[in-house]
Design a protein that fits this description.
With 313 residues, this protein is an alpha+beta fold. Helix content is 35%, strand content 21%. It is globular and about 70 Å long.
């Protein structure tokens, strides 16, 4: 269950204050906190200047869910500053999303047997299998269909939950030792295996055309755009999948674009060495057109650049 808060926070001290953590008290759940830059409309781990009021975003994933879709959720929220001080906001009511209106027409299901191109047929079959997997292990339970993350030998559905050590000087935005982390998916591997069998450029173009055509909010595959991201990223087509998602998937009613962003955020955290400097620039440009919560993506971009400078001199 995703719980999102938007706050106006005032610094009544004479020093800069940074918010480094947040949690809700019932059930106890740690979350993300982002503060608006003092002069720009961007969010990250920025200071709140003395005497100033600024916007703060908090985001939590409560597992398992404590409310049904549409129900309100009442709890207390704590914001934690760099000194470890806890600032409690009591009895906050998070308003549940309004029940969706019944669709006049269900999104049509693509009949696999009617697809004549053998490459497109295989791609559609795998994406349909992933859509079914997502129904069983999707956003409702904190999963991402067939995506699994293994951290130091322990497996988690989806990309797991991020925990941070309060008041720590460590770099907790990205994982420095990537060898301890593995993100995998049998359905993604099926699509990657299919690509490896393709020998000609013309057939490779058909492969990506079939894949990106289904990265669309008006298709049954909207909920599994994250899988198309995972495959495209693995094949060096990050720019193309970012452009397709922001144009054709954003604004969907199946939370597909949000899950797309969630996986991108985790790839930056766990597999940051696989992103080129050009990729980081492309992601930053992509974020300029994103109109919804983008997790910690901006923060991770800055952390990756800083980490590379510290390692390479």
């Amino acid at each position: 269950m995703q719980v999102v808060g938007r706050w106006h926070v005032t610094n009544i001290t004479g020093d800069n204050v940074r918010l480094l953590g947040t949690k809700i008290l019932k059930p106890i759940t740690e979350g993300y906190v982002l503060t608006r830059h003092p002069e720009e409309n961007i969010f990250g781990s920025y200071p709140i200047l003395p005497g100033e009021t600024t916007e703060v975003h908090s985001d939590f994933w409560v597992i398992p869910p404590k409310r049904k879709e549409g129900e309100d959720f009442k709890t207390s929220v704590v914001l934690i500053d760099q000194y470890g001080n806890e600032h409690k906001i009591k009895n906050v009511v998070f308003t549940g999303p309004k029940p969706k209106e019944p669709k006049k027409e269900e999104t049509p299901s693509e009949p696999i047997h009617s697809i004549t191109d053998p490459i497109e047929k295989e791609i559609a079959a795998v994406l349909k299998a992933e859509a079914n997997r997502y129904k069983e292990c999707g956003r409702r339970v904190g999963g991402l269909g067939s995506i699994q993350t293994t951290i130091q030998g322990k497996s988690y559905k989806g990309v797991g939950t991020e925990w941070r050590e309060a008041d720590s000087p460590k770099n907790q935005t990205i994982t420095e030792d990537e060898s301890t982390i593995q993100i995998s998916s049998d359905n993604a591997q099926a699509l990657l295996n299919l690509y490896q069998k393709i020998k000609t450029d013309e057939r490779k173009e058909r492969y990506f055309s079939a894949l990106f055509k289904r990265l669309d909010k008006n298709t049954e595959y909207a909920p599994v755009g994250y899988l198309i991201l995972f495959v495209s990223f693995s094949l060096g087509e990050l720019d193309a999948v970012l452009n397709g998602a922001v144009k054709n998937l954003q604004g969907d009613k199946a939370y597909g674009f949000s899950d797309f962003l969630r996986l991108l955020d985790s790839l930056l955290k766990f597999r940051h060495s696989s992103f080129s400097s050009e990729n980081l620039d492309s992601i930053e440009q992509f974020l300029a057109d994103v109109k919804e919560h983008s997790f910690r993506i901006e923060e991770r971009l800055a952390a990756i650049r800083a980490y590379r400078l510290s390692e390479n001199g």
